[in-house]
Amino acid sequence: KWEGVETGTGTGVFVGNVTIGTSLSGSTYQMKDPTRGNMYTTNLNNGTSGNGTLFTKATDTWGDGTATNKESAAVDAHFGVSMTWDYYKNTYGRNGIRNDGVGAYSRVHYGSNYVNAFWDDSCFCMTYGDGSGNTHPLTELDVAGHEMTHGVTSNTAGLIYSGESGGLNESTSDVFGNMVEWYANISKDNPDYLVGELIDINGNGTPLRYMDQPSKDGASADNWSSTVGNKDVHYSSGVGNHAFYLLSEGSGAKVINGVSYNSPTFNNIPVTGIGHDKAAAIWFRALTTYWTSTTNYANARAGMLSAATDLYGANSAEYNATATAWAAVNVGS
Ligand code: ASN
Ligand code: ZN
């Protein structure tokens, strides 16, 4: 600990009670973390432009877990950036989104009834709405990891946000968003292969997306087809999400942390998983070493095979599982 660096306590809407990195300026605490690239969190207070106002207060205790307390969503967002920062740093040695030690900031309470969250390269920041009725903020951990990963993708492969490369871009954000959940391992937000399962974006308790069988959302693709690149990138992402699930957990039915999954495959090709940590390591190496702005699903498979060779060897179980997982979503054979 050094001058000005503090550890605060917060209660988020989704994370529950956590410690967050803060700082002390004079006698005022700030929601700003010098230990993670000075990342900070601001209040847009229903506005839709500008940097927002840095969260500050006289005590280092933030939020109460309710969405009406404006600090609660900020605690979730701030904690989400912390865990994403720590995941990339401690897993891959990546020092922030650009690997330059600079933290991205978060803006919460964007607009009114805004049911989305987004990353913006130009402000190097992410933004969260308060959801339907302004009572369902979008500040879940896997959403924070998803949005920050858009920054990582922009600064590495640079996958163009349309067609198959756009689906792969979205899938990369879903993959690492969920990896952040596994890394943080919070009991109030159990790690899973679902995206946005706590934010109740559909109003009926269902998640935004499912990686085991993406078509469960009613729109996403389970497998590659020649027209999959015509879908919205949040639906063509299903091909990549399904491949990641299969590479991690394998095909068929499974219960993990109390959640039931079922992952049928293209042509019933059986897949044996290698675990999400190895699957993510192969994905990350492909993203940062082999993929380019125009990488489609066939190229994604090729890049991951090269990455698997680098990490585990040419005839490794991990290489073979990567080949089979992509074949099982109709990419290569
Ligand atoms: N939440 C969405 C996403 O990160 C926003 C968008 O459509 N770009 O993909
Ligand atoms: Zn996205």
TrEMBL record:
Protein origin, superkingdom? Bacteria
* Species this protein is from: Kitasatospora griseola (Streptomyces griseolosporeus)
Q: Name the UniProt key words of this record, in alphabetical order.
A: Hydrolase, Metal-binding, Metalloprotease, Protease, Signal, Zinc
For this chain, the family text in UniProt reads: Belongs to the peptidase M4 family.
Q: What is the lineage of its organism?
A: Bacteria, Bacillati, Actinomycetota, Actinomycetes, Kitasatosporales
Record's protein name? Peptidase M4
Parent-record interval covered: 206 to 538 of 784
The active site annotation covers E147, H234 (proton donor)
The Peptidase M4 domain sits at 7-154
Protein's UniProt keywords contain Protease: yes
